[in-house]
Design brief:
Helices cover 25% and strands 31% of the residues. It is of the alpha+beta class. It is globular. This is Acyl-CoA synthetase family protein.
């Protein structure tokens, strides 16, 4: 039976489950309810010392995230859930003073600034009703703060239970998406918590680890990006026998990925359509029907003029007289059923003319050598259009053999007379994959930065760091930005991080960490074993020997996946 969230942060929360009730798994170690309650008490004491109404909660561990959320709510405070671990966004949530004390961007609980979230214009809830502030993906602009009440969260969980409660049964929930957005949070943490299912503590870094589960039956919360790249070398026959359900959200699933998922998991993917503001709205199993069907307790209508979808539901925080208009356009094809027809917020002004980026995207994607296409208006380049494309294998061969200019001309010619001259892309970028976030969405800012070399970073984003007690071993978890300057031309359509850049990053972090490296002399036993690509999160391990003046380094993903390694020799300055 599904339990209300309010039970979990009340005075009797410890009696909801038996002490030995399994809440989650860390590897093969079962984490019981008693441990969660102990962690909740810890966070209660920690957060109680913060004289602020809102607390930023970011934890890579699902167990710690849940415990910190429950403690925050028990104290009557609002939980602010950052949508990104990038310091630029965290700084706007925490402020410079609090941010200076955060050393691990993936794991912290800290006082939050006063924020002004997006709310329904006619909403009647008070600040005391608020459960959390969570962020939009930023795919159509800068990420925006959005508030959620306990009533909204409970309403969404009730819908999930009504639709799929019997399907997920007693399966183990595992997630390959971030739990810090309005898909991963309710689907992969709050829903199993409230219905008594166990969940895997950490999000899956790679689909390859899906077969290393402590439970035979599982429910997978994932995204189109990950379903489009399912690894072939798994025991899919075994996994298909034990998969209870697969959910995907963030964007429509490609038909080929839907067919591959059906073949591998043995069941249809449940695609979820929704937004941060509304929560889950509709679902489909596209190989049965391409139309979206509204979820229970959710009403949909289409504005006859704008063709935009309007939603009314408790989960969206609307009222009978105050529907919420979305940016997506649609066509109604049956009772509470619709087909998506692009986005209204993709209309931009180029010169004095209105241009639909969605239309340009569709035209480019219709070329047989184009796998995916996105366009963006470049305000710093006289508001011209930039196109970002992922090509098919044949397209990448053409790009390699004939070059960028010939490929640009081919695609521009393909647009034919469909577009006016001013609406044609003037700038082109070719990637192996779109720069998506953990929701599988493509933030506009990342697309823009691909076209401005002066804005493109030269260093990775530091996620976390640690230094051992003797000050000679350090570890850094880093994220490799899609728009990194060194990916330009290396290689078009199939970018990899150059080895020389990896060495420069080794020196950068070593110089910041260790006192005196001395004068560079030589490289030794350098090995480049696996490529590092845009969007990868990798670990850099450094060991400094102050006696031999050796710096050893390893870039890896885990103990079995080494990207590169080697040793750098130095000599003292006084020699």
């Amino acid at each position: 039976m599904l339990k209300s969230l309010s039970l979990f942060y009340g005075e009797s929360a410890t009696s909801i489950y038996r002490d030995k009730h399994i809440v989650g798994y860390r590897g093969n170690e079962a984490i019981c309810w008693q441990f969660v309650c102990e962690r909740q008490k810890y966070w209660l004491q920690y957060i109680a010392q913060m004289p602020v109404p809102a607390v930023a909660v970011q934890q890579s561990s699902g167990i710690e995230f849940v415990a910190a959320l429950l403690a925050t709510w028990q104290l009557g405070k609002i939980a602010v859930v950052p949508g990104s671990t990038r310091r630029s966004q965290l700084n706007s949530i925490l402020g410079e003073n609090a941010m200076s004390k955060v050393h691990d961007c993936e794991n912290f609980v800290a006082p939050a600034l006063s924020l002004t979230p997006i709310t329904n214009q006619n909403a009647t809830h008070s600040p005391a009703d608020l459960a959390l502030i969570i962020y939009t993906s930023g795919s159509s602009g800068a990420p925006q703060a959005c508030d959620k009440t306990f009533i909204q969260l409970d309403a969404e969980l009730l819908i999930l239970e009504q639709c799929w409660g019997d399907t997920v049964a007693d399966s183990l929930f595992l997630s390959s998406v971030s739990r810090h957005h309005m898909y991963g949070l309710p689907f992969s943490l709050l829903w199993p918590l409230c219905r008594g299912n166990a969940f895997v503590d950490k999000s899956l870094p790679y689909m390859e680890s899906i077969d290393q589960l402590p439970s035979p039956s599982f429910t997978l919360i994932t995204s189109p990006v990950q379903l489009a790249n399912l690894p072939p070398a798994l025991d899919w026959r075994y996994l298909a026998q034990h998969c209870a359900a697969v959910f995907s959200a963030g964007a429509p699933l490609d038909e080929a990925a839907a067919k591959d998922s059906l073949e591998k998991f043995g069941l249809q993917v449940n695609e979820i359509y929704g937004s941060t503001e509304t929560g889950a709205i509709a679902q489909r199993q596209q190989l049965l029907s391409p139309a979206w069907q509204c979820l229970p307790e959710t009403e949909m209508r289409i504005d006859p003029t704008s063709r935009q979808i309007e939603i009314n539901s408790v989960a969206a925080g609307t009222t009978d007289t105050n529907w919420l208009a979305l940016s997506d356009k649609a066509e109604e094809v049956g009772p509470q059923q619709f087909m998506l027809k692009g986005r209204s917020d993709q209309i931009v002004k180029v010169g004095a003319k209105r241009v639909s980026l969605s239309h340009i995207n569709a035209l480019l994607a219709s070329h047989p050598l184009v796998r995916e296409a996105r366009t963006v208006i470049l305000n710093e380049r006289k508001s011209r259009i930039g196109a970002v494309l992922c090509l098919t294998p044949d397209g990448n061969r053409l790009l390699t053999d004939q070059g960028r200019n010939a490929t640009n001309k081919m695609l521009s010619h393909h647009l034919g007379d469909e577009l006016e001259s001013i609406a044609r892309p003037r700038y082109w970028r070719y990637l192996s994959s779109m720069p998506s976030n953990t929701q599988g969405k493509v933030p506009r800012k990342l697309l823009e930065e691909l076209f401005y070399s002066e804005h493109q970073p030269r260093l990775p984003e530091l996620v976390s760091s640690s230094l051992d007690s003797d000050g000679q071993e350090a570890s850094f978890t880093i994220f490799v930005p899609h728009q990194l300057r060194y990916f330009n031309g290396h290689f078009p359509g199939n970018a990899v991080l150059p080895g020389v850049v990896q060495l420069s990053w080794v020196l950068h972090f070593a110089q910041q960490t260790f006192q005196k490296l001395g004068i560079f002399q030589r490289l030794e036993v350098i090995k480049f074993q696996q490529v590092i690509r845009p969007g990868d999160t990798v670990r850099l391990k450094l060991r400094w020997d102050p006696h031999k003046y050796y710096l050893q380094f390893v870039f890896d993903t885990d103990s079995e996946s080494t990207h590169s390694s080697g040793r750098i020799g130095f000599k003292p300055h006084d020699e």
